[in-house]
């Protein structure tokens, strides 16, 4: 983050000169720079510290935002829509902390004024700096006073009104530092002029993949259940078994011959259950604990008796035996028929020969007699 | 020494009647042999998690099964030569069933290799060869059609087994599924029961003749050395047969690029951004087109224009297959891949339908028993090498197109080779036919083949003088005894 620091210093000097120049040029301007700086700082504070009037912002939030300013200097501040003032002047007043987090920008582009509510899901597993922005795509040419509001879970966290300007002002940004579970949730941007547009960002912890279909295993066998967290790495995994309506965590050190929990690789967890019994069936919950919250995956286990698959097995084996027997019986039957038919044919042939012979003998005997 | 396989030609192939029942049995048997190793892949993910192994270690189960099915070919041929098709297929079916049932009680991946890979694989080998052999005994005029219909068993069984396996897995887990699949494989025994032995008429006179023949044979057997005895069961003189050698070289080359595109079609589709279900659907399209292409090819190959030159049709279908693969890299979206799948299914079916028919056409039904065993063990190596070579190409270049180009080039080369060599073979056969006709006009008519259309078939068998003289010898014995 060296560039960050040097950037701050680089911007500090010309701005200082500018304010000095402004002071020199006009008397009116004497108060100007100071007020501008003050208003800037206030603006900055407004933006960053959430509405000063509503002190519902948690103190850690405030403390953190001070760090945020320092990092802001890396970004271009020309698009500051709220007040049109640079916020970079307040560099030296804040201490440097946690400069190693990059800013991630998420934008929702609203196509039109009458489009349905657009929602965007942002998955975070570890602390991050987020910049959210909403922009209406269609450019309105006439300048209007727009009330821009940011809400977190229905509570307004920031609200300001833009002054008349010619450029497209239907866009707003909000910078967030996500450090804890409390910082997650739904952030909504509302822009109200003649018409109102809204968009929502949902900040969530990563989804855990368990198994949709139940795993089938057998009594006395062992089973392995897997949960995955994808590209995100949780701090730890906890397995629960559902007993009635509440979750009972599984402790593999207490019962090592029954449960083995394997946590490598880090984005997968294996629960191996040995010597299954009928009671081991049911729902198992794998919980991935992230710094920013927890999420659960579910695995359903069904434990069957060995007799269950044996029934279809014997049914099919019986069918095979019956068919084979039928085929052999049919073959024997058709062979017998063939042999009978052959036998009959031979019998007929022999009969024919005999009759011919006897005819022949008679003829010869008659011939003899005639002679 | 007359062995049962040789006397198969003494009787007329019925080309119908009980032959259709035999065809159905062959359909089931061949279907299980080809489709089972592929369909079993549905269980792999769960078994992999259960034993804690990597995917490649699990994939070895399928590879070992396929290798054993093809490598067990010669043993299968020897057994068929000795005992006939029926006992071998029934024993094979029992072996498959035992293998899968014991696999359901396995506790390690090594036991799985042995039970599923070796035992069931060998059982499938004992199913595949005899089924193909017995078609040649029951069909002659309609043999290409019969071959096409029987080979259609593979895609039909695959389409049936894949969802069935999924259903079994969802309801019974992998152990219960293996148990039930063991019972389903026992149906191969039913198919085997249908393989009624066909040979010379089995009357009491003939049985006596066989007995007498066997007695004289036993006396002579002791005089022969083991090489000649081995030759009796597995005809190694085939290696001097020109047609057989052409077929062997061409097919071994072809199989190098035959199976890899199927293996990598779904991963390629996912690679270019298509979702998992649509990628799986491509394979279903392939299987459905294949299902209809095989009998259709059999029908075409049976027609009087194609059958005399069936080797050219075979080489054309191989080259067509290769051309499909070469054009595949041009398909960059889902529609292109669907078109590719359709043409690939068509080409794949054409080649498979004629795979064994062309071998039968070249060596004749008598020597086919030994020929098929020798060919399958030679193909075994290239079949196993094909997908890993393709995988290495993909990993090295990071692009699937080189794998497709390699497969396409190999197959076009094989097709061209077969085309040229078979042209040469046909010419040589025509020359020999003329020489035979002038030498001994009676020779061609001694073999009772029934139909006179397939002179080439008879003349080809006529070149193999050994079996014919044995047949004539047996016939003389029978006639002599009956007169007595």
From TrEMBL, chain B:
Feature: compositional bias, Basic and acidic residues: 437-446
Topology class, membrane: Multi-pass membrane protein
Keywords, alphabetical: Cell membrane, Membrane, Symport, Transmembrane, Transmembrane helix, Transport
UniProt-listed Pfam families: MFS_1
Catalysed reactions, as listed in the record: 4-methyl-2-oxopentanoate(out) + H(+)(out) = 4-methyl-2-oxopentanoate(in) + H(+)(in); 3-methyl-2-oxobutanoate(out) + H(+)(out) = 3-methyl-2-oxobutanoate(in) + H(+)(in)
Listed name of the protein: Monocarboxylate transporter 2-like
Entry's Gene Ontology molecular function annotations: monocarboxylic acid transmembrane transporter activity; symporter activity
Phylogenetic placement of the source organism: Eukaryota, Metazoa, Chordata, Craniata, Vertebrata
Keyword Cell membrane belongs to the record: yes
């Amino acid at each position: 983050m060296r560039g960050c620091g040097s950037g701050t210093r680089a911007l500090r000097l010309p701005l200082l000169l500018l304010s000095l120049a402004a002071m020199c040029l006009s008397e009116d301007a004497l108060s100007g720079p100071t007020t501008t700086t003050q208003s800037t700082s206030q603006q900055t504070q407004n933006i960053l510290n959430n509405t000063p009037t509503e002190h519902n912002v948690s103190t850690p939030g405030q403390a953190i935002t001070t760090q945020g300013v320092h990092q802001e200097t890396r970004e271009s501040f020309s698009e500051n829509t709220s007040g049109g003032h640079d916020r970079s002047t307040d560099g030296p007043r804040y201490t440097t902390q946690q400069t190693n987090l990059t800013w991630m920008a998420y934008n929702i582009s609203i196509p039109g004024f009458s489009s349905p509510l657009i929602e965007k899901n942002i998955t975070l597993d570890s602390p991050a700096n987020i910049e959210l922005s909403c922009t209406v795509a269609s450019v309105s040419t006439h300048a209007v006073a727009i009330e821009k509001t940011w809400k977190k879970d229905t509570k307004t966290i920031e609200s300001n009104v833009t002054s008349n300007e010619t450029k497209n002002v239907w866009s707003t940004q909000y910078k967030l530092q996500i450090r804890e579970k409390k910082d997650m949730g739904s952030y909504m941007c509302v822009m109200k002029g003649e018409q109102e547009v809204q968009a929502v960002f949902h900040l969530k912890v990563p989804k855990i993949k368990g198994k949709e279909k139940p795993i089938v295993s057998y009594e006395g066998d062992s089973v392995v259940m897997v949960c995955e967290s994808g590209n995100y790495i949780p701090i730890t995994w906890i397995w629960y078994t559902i007993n009635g309506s509440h979750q009972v965590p599984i402790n593999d050190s207490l019962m090592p011959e029954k449960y083995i929990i394997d946590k490598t690789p880090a984005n997968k967890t294996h629960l191996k259950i040995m010597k299954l019994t009928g009671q081991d069936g049911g729902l198992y919950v794998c919980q991935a604990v992230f710094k920013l919250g927890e999420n659960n995956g579910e695995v359903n286990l069904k434990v069957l008796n060995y007799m269950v698959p044996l029934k279809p097995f014997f049914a099919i084996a019986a069918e095979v035996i019956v068919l084979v027997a039928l085929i052999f019986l049919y073959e024997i039957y058709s062979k017998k028929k063939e042999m009978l038919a052959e036998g009959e044919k031979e019998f007929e042939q022999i009969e024919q020969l005999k009759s011919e012979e006897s005819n022949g003998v008679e003829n010869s005997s008659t011939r003899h007699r005639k002679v | 020494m007359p062995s049962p396989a040789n006397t198969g030609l003494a009787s007329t192939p019925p080309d119908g009647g009980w032959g259709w029942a035999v065809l159905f049995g062959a359909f089931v048997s061949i279907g299980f042999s080809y489709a089972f190793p592929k369909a079993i892949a549905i269980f792999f993910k769960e078994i992999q998690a259960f034993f804690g192994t990597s995917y490649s270690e699990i994939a070895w189960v399928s590879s070992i099964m396929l290798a054993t099915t093809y490598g067990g070919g010669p043993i299968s041929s020897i057994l068929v030569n000795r005992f006939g098709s029926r006992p071998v297929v029934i024993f094979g079916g029992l072996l498959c069933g035992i293998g899968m049932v014991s696999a359901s009680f396995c506790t390690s991946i090594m036991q799985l290799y042995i039970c599923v890979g070796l035992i069931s694989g060998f059982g499938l080998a004992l199913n595949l060869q005899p089924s193909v052999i017995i078609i040649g005994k029951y069909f002659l005029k309609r043999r290409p059609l019969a071959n096409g219909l029987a080979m259609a068993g593979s895609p039909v069984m695959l389409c049936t087994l894949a969802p069935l396996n999924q259903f079994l897995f969802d309801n019974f887990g992998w152990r219960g599924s293996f148990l039930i699949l063991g019972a389903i494989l026992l149906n191969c025994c039913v198919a085997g029961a249908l393989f009624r032995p066909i040979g010379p008429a089995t009357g009491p006179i003939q049985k006596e003749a066989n007995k007498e023949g066997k007695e004289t044979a036993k006396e002579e057997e002791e005089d022969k050395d083991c090489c000649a005895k081995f030759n009796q069961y597995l005809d190694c003189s085939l290696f001097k047969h020109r047609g057989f050698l052409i077929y062997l070289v061409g097919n071994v080359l072809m199989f190098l690029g035959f199976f890899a595109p199927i293996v990598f079609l779904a991963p390629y589709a996912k690679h270019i951004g298509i979702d998992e279900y649509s990628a799986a659907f491509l394979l279903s399209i392939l299987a459905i087109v294949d299902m209809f292409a095989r009998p259709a090819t059999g029908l075409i190959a049976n027609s009087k224009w194609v059958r005399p030159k069936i080797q050219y049709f075979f080489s054309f279908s191989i080259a067509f297959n290769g051309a499909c693969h070469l054009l595949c890299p041009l398909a960059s979206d889902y529609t292109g891949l669907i078109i590719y799948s359709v043409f690939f299914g068509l080409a794949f079916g054409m080649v498979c339908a004629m795979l064994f028919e062309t071998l039968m056409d070249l060596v004749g039904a008598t020597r086919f028993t030994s020929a098929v065993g020798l060919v399958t063990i030679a193909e075994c190596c290239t079949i196993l090498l094909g997908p890993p070579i393709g995988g290495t190409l993909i990993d090295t270049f990071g692009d699937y197109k080189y794998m497709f180009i390699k497969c396409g080039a190999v197959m076009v080369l094989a097709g061209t080779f077969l085309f040229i060599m078979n042209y040469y073979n046909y010419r040589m056969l025509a020359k020999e036919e003329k020489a035979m006709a002038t030498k001994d006009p009676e020779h061609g008519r001694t073999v009772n083949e029934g139909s006179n259309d397939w002179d080439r078939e008879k003349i080809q068998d006529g070149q193999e003088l050994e079996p014919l003289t044995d047949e004539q010898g047996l016939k003389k014995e029978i006639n002599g005894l009956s007169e007595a």
